[in-house]
Amino acid sequence: MTGPVPFTLMIGGLAGWRRSGSRAEEARSLPFQAEIARRAEEVGFDALFIADVPFVDAATVTVPPYTHLEPITLLSALAAVTDRIGLIPTISSSYSQPYTVARQISSLQHLSNDRVGVNIVTSFQGERNYGYDTIPSPAERYARAAEFARVLDRLWASWEPGALAFDRAAGRYADPALVHTIDHVGEHFSVAGPLDVVPREKRPLIIQAGASDLGRALAADIADLVYTAQPTLATARTFLGELHSEIRARSRSVDEVAVLTGANVVLADTEERAREIRDEINGPLSYDIGRTRVSTQLGGADLTGLDLDEPIPVEVLPDVSTVQRRQGRFEVFRSLAVDERLTLRELIRRELGGAGHWSITGTPQTVADALEERVLGGGTDGFNISVPQFPEGPPLLFDALVPELKRRGLFRTDPPEQDLRRRFGLADRTAPTDAAAARAVATAP
Ligand SMILES: Cc1cc2nc3c(=O)[nH]c(=O)nc-3n(C[C@H](O)[C@H](O)[C@H](O)COP(=O)(O)O)c2cc1C
């Protein structure tokens, strides 16, 4: 028995769009998004997480683009129709300017009464939409991400508490002595500050989701929450152990950081029906598109001509150090291909069904068993649940799986704390983000 753990919900994907009644036509509509957000809030999810990949290949639009709506725009709308649930947009540090993002996030914090976290990612696709011919190396992207986080932090600190005076008689809106420039001049950004959108006193939570060595190092430096893709308990425990040592090495406490594992869930009344539905979702897919996507996940390995029912020959796999896009996800797919000897067909199904996240297929009881085992086995602090199953996935999640998790004491039954940091069970930070991020910039290769 464990206490309740945090749960976030990812409502971005519609991998099961071909199923009849999937509501794929509604994915970009506010009523559809609001309905799921309100139900998630009602049953007690801690936050909504919106993924973002600013890229679509014109040749592969026979499956939906990864992103249905730009996350900040979507969450601004959902802030207005919800009261308590946390709002976590994904932001690309590779393609965005920190001043723009700082004001967007501060605005969302005002409009939502401090319900915001920011998932800062080093984008792995979309470079040609942002003026690059080739994707910058992981080292460059992570160095930029560390500086990006540092500038955000300094902008959010550019107004001291109490700076707003509202002194009508004296004509002093704010006290200039408490509002500061930041005069940041770095490798990637020059930002004078202060921030024009007056920052909230509470900082938004910072989320990091990269899994490579550099990603883990950045997480240890700046993250409050870490999202991770861990298909097995064994890999999850290794990841957690490594992350914890890096956090301690920075004189931070592991209680300041919570790790949330992605879980892609398909549910039905019986195991057999759940497996059929997983097949219906993953089944009618294009194996040509899948082959390209698996090749990308495997660091560009040449899979042309490989039989769908063959495992991947080890010699076509590159060394992880040469992988430019996603070293973390390369390790996940490498392990599925080499350690578990999955065939190309199986890898394609994993990729299109959940992009390498932990997939759980079963009844509310067996799915709850799997989630519980992960927590009891010391593999995670909580979960980010994603549901590829439409139309019946969300109702099954809200009306069957969550009640089952509540019965087991794994999902909170009391109203969530208003304060996001406490909601995720996080201790106060021992190292200020600014100093930690400065160290990250200094030590980045
Ligand atoms: C649950 C989860 C969600 C993620 N969502 C996104 C996303 O929406 N957009 C993105 O660019 N990266 C996302 N990532 C992070 C990328 O996997 C990561 O930034 C990328 O793989 C490159 O970093 P790495 O090589 O350190 O893993 C997510 C990761 C996880 C575990």
List the helices and strands and how they pair.
Layout: E1 7-10, H1 30-43, E2 47-50, H2 71-80, E3 86-92, H3 98-112, E4 117-121, H4 138-156, E5 164-167, E6 172-174, E7 184-185, E8 190-191, E9 205-208, H5 213-222, E10 225-228, H6 233-249, E11 258-267, H7 271-282, H8 287-297, H9 327-339, H10 344-354, E12 358-362, H11 364-376, E13 382-386, H12 393-407, H13 420-423, H14 433-443
Parallel strand pairs: 1-2, 1-13, 2-3, 3-4, 4-9, 9-10, 10-11, 11-12, 11-13
Antiparallel strand pairs: 5-6, 7-8
The structure holds flavin mononucleotide.
Flavin mononucleotide (FMN) binds next to helix 5, strand 10 and helix 9.
Describe the protein:
This protein has a single domain (7-281, 358-442), classed as Luciferase-like domain (TIM Barrel), CATH 3.20.20.30. The strands form three sheets. It has an eight-stranded parallel beta barrel, surrounded by seven helices. A two-stranded antiparallel ribbon has the order 5-6. Strands 7-8 form a two-stranded antiparallel sheet. It has 445 residues and is of the alpha/beta class. Strand 1 (7-10), helix 1 and strand 2 form a beta-alpha-beta unit. It has helices at residues 30-43, 71-80, 98-112, 138-156, 213-222, 233-249, 271-282, 287-297, 327-339, 344-354, 364-376, 393-407, 420-423, 433-443, and strands at residues 7-10, 47-50, 86-92, 117-121, 164-167, 172-174, 184-185, 190-191, 205-208, 225-228, 258-267, 358-362, 382-386. Residues 51-53, 90, 121-124, 138, 209-212, 214-215, 227-229, 262, 326-329, 384 line the site of flavin mononucleotide.
